[in-house]
Amino acid sequence: DIQMTQSPSSLSASIGDRVTITCRANETIRKYLNWYQWKPGKAPKVLISSASNLRSGVPSRFSGSGSGTDFSLTISSLQPEDFATYYCQHMFIAPYTFGQGTKLEIK
Amino acid sequence: QVQLQESGPGLVKPSQTLSLTCTVSGGSINSGGYYWSWIRQHPGKGLEWIGYISDSGRTKYKPSLKSRVTISTDASKSQFSLRLRAVTAADTAFYYCARDDTTGLFDNWGQGTLVVVSS
Asked: In the prediction, which pLDDT does B44 show?
């Protein structure tokens, strides 16, 4: 299975901050990488598909980049509703695997 | 807007079979163009893809779980189900159903249900 390593595992930041979460695959996955947002008690939400495609309805402060083995999710200016847990996931080939998650907390 | 909702027992005894159902509303499970998936998250740990079923009934499972897993559909009820046999405490997890757009992108999820394996 392809292993996904996400960092950091947790992050404290303030409203208005720019934050970046990274995700690394242990072999190339080209651009087959998605980012999800998880909030307690809610269904997970896909933010970014294929490394950099912003999903419909997702605020433009979210962006994704990368290809091959190294990827990142950036939130340009944190809003209160952005405090959540974020996961990367490869879709290069089944079995699909996820990163361990990054919990974004208010400083 | 398609919505998915998991249901099933929250407690299963070791060696028995875990059975969960996902009800899909706001769309047809037979509409084509999607795979219907199960994903789990062990408490405090990462997410694990379990497998999917297509609208034609084709299935694909995670190899390490393949011998114990069956995913099936009941289109008349707009439901798909997960059966995991011979469970152990290691199968205690939050179980999520999700829609896969056939590329491996999970574009709709249920809210998840906790299943505890314990005697």
From this structure: 85
